[in-house]
Structure formats: C-alpha cells, structure tokens
Amino acid sequence: MAFQKFGKFIFPVVVTVCSLDVLSSAFNDSYYDITEQISGNLTEEGFPDNVKNVCTSEINMISAKDMLYSHEYMDYFVDNTLDLRRSNYFPTNECKADDSLKRKEKEAKAYFEKNLESLEKDYREHLENAKKYLLSEDSYEIKNAYVNSIEYDHETYEKTGRINLKFDRLISSFSIEEASGKPFEQLKFYIKPSRKQVDLIEKAQDHMASDKYILRMNIDLDSMKTFIRAGCNYSTYWDSLARIESTSSCIATKLTDAEINILKFDGNSDEYRNTSEEKRRWILVDTIPVRWE
Questions:
Q1: How does pLDDT run across 94-121, given as a tens digit for each residue?
Q2: Which of 198, 216, 202 is closest to 161 using CA atoms?
Q3: The whole model's pTM is what?
Q4: Among 38, 66, 254, 277, which one is most buried in terms of CB atoms within 10 A?
C-alpha cells in the first residue's frame, strides 16, 4: 500500500519483535544487523528451579522468560500467593520404579509433610531470590522491533508536520505502563518526518517498489521493578490434540526513548528476491525520533 497525497488511511504492520537467526559477524561493518536484540538476556537459564533431595540429585535451571510463563512464580510475584505442594521446588515424584527408589520416594514425601512449614519458609526465600533475579536489570533496550501502524493523513501532515503512530503497550516480555509521568493509555504517539522521510516510508510500505526499504524500531525502557498480568509473549502448542494458546506475564516498564530506522536493501529487486532473508544486507538510511504527548 503506497502513500497517497490525500485522504486518511492506516498502514497495518505486525506489532511483534522481529527475529532472524543471524550472526552480526557475518556482515561487513557497513551493514546494519536487523537481528532481534533485547538487553538483559531473558532467555538464559540462570536460576535454579528446584533443590536436591533423596528423589533427585539434579538441579534444573530456569530462565527469566520461563518464569514469566510460570504460574508458580507469577502467583507469588503478582498476588503474593504460593503453593509448595504444586511447585517444582522440592520434587517428591522423581524416583524410578524399583524397590529402593520407591522407598526413597516415600522418604521424600514423608520428609516433605513433616517439614512442610520450614520448607515453605525456604520456598518463599527461593521465590524472593527469583524475583530479585528477574528484576535485576534497571533498564532494557529493544532493537529492531517491527514498526506499528503508521496513520498518515495528508491534511494533518501539511498543517502540523505530524504522522500519528500506533504504539503497542505490550512488546516482547514488557508492558509499558507510562512515559514522561503519564499513564500509557493517555499518550498519543507521533513522528515528524521530513518530506524525504515520508517518501522513504512510502517505499518501505510498497512491496512492488524496485528499491527495497524496511522500517525497524529501537526502544529504551526503564524497569518499574514489578510485574503485570498481561499477555506479553504469545505462543500456541498442541496438547492431546487440543490447541493451547498461552501468554506470559510482563515486566512493567516506563518508556524513555524510541526511534524508527529506515533501512535499504543493498542490491536490486532481483537480488532481493533471490537472497535468503538471513543473508540480505541492509544499510541504515535515516532515523526518525518517536514523540508522544
């Protein structure tokens, strides 16, 4: 869909973060790496999910992102509730089906019931440490998010120089709760591009254009050191022939800065079509600050 010089319309663009499995080292320094980049390393399995006992000698590790999906952690982080019996913290059912390990399983369950109060105290401390681990970052930087819908109205642009921008509150593992001291719901987002930048945005939206352009957004966030029960990371999977849709909780944040990058493919349209996505080379052409009020 191309820009017209009259009327009002909306460019619908997917609101998720782009993800390409590309190593930046594969590119010349002059090219722009459009790989998803999120500071904080939320996918690293760096926190223990359980303790050792007679039934298990192995400690399984969990990532921050998996914690956001876990009711076990989020029930405590958001609602301050815990259920040790339903947790993975003290495994009692992992002994194998031979007589000696069955006996150990009984021992583990007996120990669990006898020491439930002290185990719950240890479990609460474990969850508090998990919360500190999950909120250890003061700020986050997201690079190369897809640009949300750009709403171009020719009359508005001619009068104000503005183009309205739809900015999604939920992105990756984060929920943007405010910016500049105002609640997110009260904010209006926009850009003030030059006419040249308007033409480049038009080309990025025109899939038939001979020169290939794309738009990507960089976003800076400050952590609010708390969580929101909202649908951040979205996934679907099949379980017993049933389709399960799952979303995670979010880290609450404040928006501090955002910008839109305009990138051009280094080659002609034939090269673009014949080059796999992970091998396409992009050049940063221009940057437009995102504003709000």
A1: 665 555 666 777 888 888 999 999 999 9
A2: 198
A3: 0.81
A4: 38
